[in-house]
Amino acid sequence: MVKWHLTGYRRWISSPTGSVLLLVLLALVGDYSSRGVFAASPLPDQSDVLYHAASVSSIAATRDVDSTYFLPNTTVPTHYSISLRTDIHNDVRTFSAITRIYLTVLAPTDLIVMHVQELNIASVALYRIASTGGNEIWIDSPTYMIDIVREHVTFRTAGMLPLGNYALEVAYTGSMRNYQSGYLVSRYRNEANEWRSVGTTHFQATLARRVFPCYDEPALKATFDLKITHHRAYTAIANMPLAGTEIDPNNREYLVSRFERTPLMSTYLLAFAVTDFKTLRNGQHEIVVRSNAQDDAMYALTVGSTILERLGSYLELSYYDYMPKMTSIAVPDRGTGAMENWGLVTYGEPSLLYNPAVNTYRNRKRVTTVIAHEYAHQWFGDLVSPRSWDFIWLSEGFATLYEYLATRLAEPGDEYWELFSVEVVQRAFLQDANEQIRPINWQAATQAEVSSLFDIIAYQKAGSVLNMFRNVLGESEWRQGLTQYLTDRGYDAATEENLALHLQRAVEGKDILPPTANVRDLLASWTDAPGFPVLNVYRLYRDGMMILSQERFLEQSVLPTGHVWHIPFNYAYESSATFYDLTTAGWLSSRAAKLETPVPDDEWVVFNKQQTGYYRVNYDRRNWDLLAQALMANRNAIHRANRAQLIDDAFNLARADLLDMAVVLRLMRYLRAERDYAPWYAADKVLTYLYDKVRATEHEHAFLVYVDELIEEVYSTLSVDTVGQGESTLYKYLRQLITGWACRIGYKDCLERSRAALRKEFLPGQGESSVAVHPDVRAVVYCYGLQQDSAEEFQLIFQRLMASRNQAERTDLIDALGCARNADSITSLLATIVFSAAPDTTFVYLSEERNRVFQAIYSGGRAPTLALMNVLSDPVSVQQLLAIVGEGTITNAVMNIAQRTNGAEEMARLEMMLTAMNGILPPGTLNNARDTAAARPQWFTTAEGLIVGEFLEQYNLP
Ligand SMILES: [Zn+2]
C-alpha cells in the first residue's frame, strides 16, 4: 500500500449565504462570477577484534498486546462465496449481500468466531458438508453476538460441532463511506459535467469485515467466488477475470457479474469495483479509468506492463503463472495512495494518470514508482503474505525497495534508483533517530495498533535494511534467496525466519559472511532493536590504524544501550577511491574494535560506500577537514552518493551535538562546483533548516550571501523557464531546486524570467500568441511569477484550476496560487472555499484540496501568510472557514504560521491573530502556538545557533 493521506471524515455544512464574509469577499472578488472567471551525529570504551563472534544482546521486540483481539483457532476458513447487490449508479450508499463462509472445525466447539464491522445481519444458516461429498445439509440457524470493540461476531450453535467441514450462510446489509474504508463511493464529473458515483474497495488492514463477515487475519487464506449484481449501465471488475454475466432474474435493468475463483489469498486483498469506466488493454495488463481521462492512462498502461514483466524475470517467477490478468484502476478524488489487491490494484488518480502536456516529471516519477511498489507487492504481500500484521514490514519493506529498483529494471533512463538514498535511507534516519521509535518487529492486536504499523519503519527503514542485506549478500545470492522464499511460502504466509532461512541457504558455503555469522542473527540485530547506529571512525594517524566504535544515534539525547548492531562496513580513500566496489570489508560486531588499514595517514577516508549500510558515520575532526579540502579540490574524487551522505550525516551529527555545525557549513562550500542532484538534495535540507532560523533576523543577509555563493555558478548553467531536449530526470530535479533558491533569495534574473514567462502564457502582448510554460518548470515559474503584481494572471490560473479535471495538475495550480504576493488574491482564494460549500456552486474542490489551499498559502512565503493571517484575524471569516474545513485544518494552519514566526514584529502580528481567535480555537491550541513561536529566538542562544551566527558573521567579512 502507498499511504492515502487519510484525514478522516469531515463534517460538511453548506450554505454560507448571507454571511458577512461572503459580502465582504464578493466585493473584493469583484465581478468574477459575472465574467465567469470564478467558474470555476567519541571514543571507544573498549577495544576488540573485528570479526568478533556473532553474539549480540538484543533488545527484545516485544510489548504486551491484548490477545483477545485475535481469533480463536478452533475454526478456519477454506472458501468464501459472496453475492453482493449495489445501486451505486444512483449514488445509493447501502448494499445488500449474502456470503457463504466455508470453514473447517479443528476442535469441537459450539462457537464460530470471525470479524464483522457495521453489518446488519438479517439471517444466518449453518450447513454440514459431508466428507463423502453430496448435498449440504442444513443443521442450524445459529444465534450471534457482536463485540463492537474487537469487531468479532460469535455465532453460537445449538450443540457442539464435531470436527469437519461446514458452510455458514449470512445475509446482511452494509453501508458505503466516502473515504478509504471497505466498499466506498467516489464521485467525478463526466463530459456532460454531470456528477457520477462509482464504487471501489479498500480492505487493508482490517476493513474487509465491513463488506462481508470473514476471518480477517492475513494468514487465514481462502479462495473466493464473487458475484455482483449492478445496473446494466455499469460494469463490475474484481481480482479475477469475469466468468460470465447474466441478466438479473428479478430486475431486467440489472446484470449479475460472476468472477472466476481466486487462488488462496488473504481477505485484505480482495477487491472489486462497480463503475461506468473504460478499460484500456495491453495483453493481460489493463488500466480502468473514467472515459474522460483515457489519454492520461496510456503511460501507465505501457510502463506497468514492462514493470510487471521485468519483476517476473528478475524473481524468476512470472506474475501470469499465478494470476490470469492484472488490472490497475484510477479512482477519482481518493487522494494519492494506492493498494496492491491481487490482480486489481487501486490508485488515487495522481498515482496512475500522467499527461505530459499538463503533468510534471515529478508526477511521472510518482506514477512509475507507485506502480512499481504495488506490482512488487503482487509477490511480496499477495503471493506471500505476512504471517501476522507484526510482519507487515516484509511486504512494505520489499515494496519500498522495489519501488525504486524495479524502475531501474523497466526504465533505467529515468534514474529513479539514484534517489533511493536521499528519499528512503536518509528519510528513515530522521524518524528512526527518535528515542520513542519502535523496532521493525513490533506486535499489534487492536485495529489502531495494526494501522499504526504502516509507518516509516515498516516502509523506509525496512526497505533500507533489506537493501543493506542485498548488498552484503550479493545480488545473485539475494535473488536466489528471494526466489526460494517466494516459492516455498507461495499461497501462504511468512515471518522474518522464513526469509532469513532462504537467504542463509543462498550464501551457505560461499564465504560471503564471517564463519561464525548467520543471516538470521545479523538481520535480527537490525529488526529487533529500535533505532540505528552511528559508526565512529577515530583515526590514529599512525600506520593506517583506526578505532571503530558504535552507538545508537539519537537526534537529541544519548541513551545507554547494551545493544550491538552487526555493522557491515567498507571504505574508500584518496589513493584507492573504489566507490563502485561494494564488497563488505569487515563487520563491527562489538561496541568497538581496532582496525588495521592501508590508508595513508595524510589521505581522507570515507566509510559506507554509496551509503548502502543503514547507519551514519562520524569521523575525527582531522578527517572531516581532509574531506572538506578534497571536495573543494575535486568533488568527483568522492562518489556523488557519498557526497550526499557526508552532508546529510554532518548536518544531523551537528544537530545531535556530535559535531560542530561550522564543519557542516565549511564542508558545503564545495557545492559551488556541485552539479549532481543527490548532494544538493541533502544540502537543501540544511539550507531550509537554517533559512527558517535566520529569516527576518540580523543574520539573514549573511546567510543569503552564503547561499548566493553556493548556487551562483550552477544557476548560470540552468534555464529557469525552458526545458531542453534530452534533459535527464535528475537534471530537472536539480533545476527546480536551484532556481527555487535563486528566486527565493531574490535573483533578479530568476524573478524577471518567471514573471515574463507567466505573462507570455496568460497575458501575451498584442499580436503575440500564448506560449505555455512547460509543466517541468511550472512550479518555480508560476510561484515566483505570482510574487509581483499579477492579479490578472492569478485569476487566469484559478480559472484553469476550476476547469482542470487532472488532479495532479490541480494540486500544482493550488500550490502556485498560494505564492501570490497580492493580498486580495489570497483573500479571494480563501473566499472560494466558502463559496464551494454552497449548493449548486461552480467552485469545485476535490476532497483534500481545501486543506491544500491553506498549506499552499502558509508555505508560499511571508506575503501570502500575512494575507492569511488577516483573514484568520476576522472572527466571522474564521468561523465560516472552520465550519467547512474543520478545526484540524485551521489549527494546522495556525501552528504552521507560529512555527514560521521570526522577530519581534512578526511575534506581535501573530499575537494579534491569536487574540482574535479567542473563543474560536481552544485556549490550549492558541497557547501552544504562542509557546512554539516564543521558543524560536532561543535557538540563537544555543551552541548551534551561536556557532552558525559566528560563522555567518565571519563569512560575511569582506
Ligand atoms: Zn505498500
Automatic annotation (TrEMBL):
GO terms for biological process: peptide catabolic process; proteolysis. The keyword Cytoplasm does not apply. It catalyses: Release of an N-terminal amino acid, Xaa-|-Yaa- from a peptide, amide or arylamide. Xaa is preferably Ala, but may be most amino acids including Pro (slow action). When a terminal hydrophobic residue is followed by a prolyl residue, the two may be released as an intact Xaa-Pro dipeptide. The record marks 459 as: Transition state stabilizer. Binds 1 zinc ion per subunit. Residues 76-269 form the Aminopeptidase N-like N-terminal domain. Residues 604-913 form the ERAP1-like C-terminal domain. It is a lipid-anchor; GPI-anchor. The keyword Aminoacyl-tRNA synthetase does not apply. Keywords: Aminopeptidase, Cell membrane, Disulfide bond, Glycoprotein, GPI-anchor, Hydrolase, Lipoprotein, Membrane, Metal-binding, Metalloprotease, Protease, Signal, Zinc. Its cofactor is Zn(2+). Residues 299-526 form the Peptidase M1 membrane alanine aminopeptidase domain. It comes from the Eukaryota. It is found in: Cell membrane. One of its GO terms (cellular component) is plasma membrane. GO terms for molecular function: alanyl aminopeptidase activity; metalloaminopeptidase activity; peptide binding; zinc ion binding. The active site is at 374 (proton acceptor). It is an enzyme of class 3 (hydrolase). Belongs to the peptidase M1 family. This is Aminopeptidase.
